[in-house]
Fold each of these.
Amino acid sequence: MRHAIGLAATLALLAVLAPPALASDSGPLYTWRYAELYYASEAVPSSSPGIHSQLTIRISQSETRDGATSTVQVISTGWSTSAGGGMDYDWYAAYEIVGPYDPSLGGVDPSLRSAWISTGPIELACYQGQCPALPAQLSVSGTWTATGPASATTEKVIDDLGWSSNLMRRERPASSDVVLSPALDRPAVLIRSVIASQSQVSIPLR
């Protein structure tokens, strides 16, 4: 549940960066490449009493017609369920860098074969709820290496103005060796370790 918030926030950023699809447009409106680790305290979200947590580690780079950006995210989310089944509290905390493209922070190979990340200390921000005790700063370093072929999907999208575009996604499973310093407790189940891309290409009117 909380993992979706982090991904939705990133996609919302891309939506802002991407210019409107115009009839005369050709080529990508944006391309987003990322490598991601996603851990959860259980494989299937549960409402059982106790603390349920997720941790997302992501390096991404986006390219639009207006330029390129780099993003690093280490996102801790979760909630506590009472014995009666209600939510006691939840949280959304993150270490984030978002800015102009900076190859020193890491990168994703266009073929999705590999990715890497390397940062200095990133400040913690508690965006929502009752955040757990986390280090005030965190550094991230490591690599992802693809372990299988890419799966691909294409979806036709029609925006609020009626213009059409193709949304193309590619994703490869990957092994990873990513270190957090100081170390954070990672939830027990590794849900995803992938290198992926998403690109939106306008469909010119004929």
Note: Residues 2-17 form the longest helix (16 residues).
Amino acid sequence: MSTQPEQPKERKGVTGLAIPAGLFIGMGVGFLVDDITAGIFLGLGGGFLVMLIVRAIVGEW
């Protein structure tokens, strides 16, 4: 057993940016169709979906 503290894992990549990007795109679409709430929820769901797909392809699990 080592006495050194465990180093946190460094995450590489930008897959975490899919969620805020989806939110902003959803907000923009929501403004265009006059339903901001639905746009935010669709953007959030789309951001999670894109993040999962990219992580599955790249292998960042």
Note: The radius of gyration is 17 Å.
Amino acid sequence: MKFQILPVKERLLRNPKAFYIAALFLFSVIVTLLSVLLDPARQYDPNRHQYDPETRVIGKELYPEAMKISLADEEVLPFNVLAADLIIEGKVAEVIDRTEEQLGVPGLSYTSIFVEPREIWYGECNDRIEVRMIGGIDSGPTKPMENDEMIFLLGETSTENVYSTIGSEDSMFAINPPGNTIYAFSNRVALAAFDGKSVNQFKQAISQELRKFTTDPDTYSYSHIGKIANDRLPDGHPRKKVYETE
């Protein structure tokens, strides 16, 4: 009996099922390679600061005493999400201490945190933004460090491309090495509960808060609604704002 060795292409064409299986296998290999190569975590600096929940440092609370009393722990995340104009994941490129002497205003100091967004979860912004926080690097709310990978819930200010955190430490979360899991800067029980969870789990929690608001916005009595939540209000809703467009 004489055997004939056929080229691979011809063998596959004679057996469509084998051709389909081979194509599916090749496609899965390509998808796997792309997911690994394009994974943002591969771009993270492995030597960046690692935060330890056991030694969490909390600065002085700067929002009004009445707000601290009125907001229970479980309300802090929805409050910050619904008040935000921008939610991003990004790298802290630079941290600059703006002292009283530099500003020339007695009693005033703040920290400029320059962030390069990796992913805009909600809202719109430039490729590099400034986040201003009251107090110097070593005073007031805890400040992130250069090269930190962070998730910020931010509000717009009157200055273009400059943002502020919604609730100081309550609206900042690090993507903590070595596992690239969440670290809450806040010691609020409901927020610190995200420590060690994946970025995707935290993103889903934010998405869930927005879905709840979209389903029944009238159950939320917060005085301020940011642009992200505002976009989810139906036209004609008494709380919906109309923003000017350029």
Note: The chain has a mean pLDDT of 82.
Amino acid sequence: MRSYRPFNVYEQLSTEGFYEEANLDKDEVKKVIFMVMEDYIFGKSLRKLKDPSWRVIFNIHYDIFRELCDQLMRFERQKTSNHQGLFAFVVLHFKDLELDWAFLENIRTVRNRNKYEGLDISKEMWKSAELKFDLYISAIKKEIENRLH
């Protein structure tokens, strides 16, 4: 699917049946969040290595962010395996987070080009995403914690 606005992505994927009903098990969400945040701490430690793999660092942070979005989506009793659809859903249903759709499309595209086309991820590519990854991971974790209580 080409890059569209979040509403267009959501509408198309809804029509095609990409969104499914999901159970909300708060204990499961807590366990997943705990593990994801352990991964986040580890991913942050990799940034301090003398000569790190920026590809590995980027992909760890992407996976953490995606998993947090997936857990947040559970509060709306929905799930999807489509990353673009996941991000569109979160942008549309959690507007207070004020997520930047262009950034989400960029990181998704970088990740896909790495996974499916063999494009490496440079230090510059990582550095251009680092701050927003950290901000968005923090904001979504906080939103999930608020909904858990």
Note: The first strand starts at residue 20 and ends at 21.
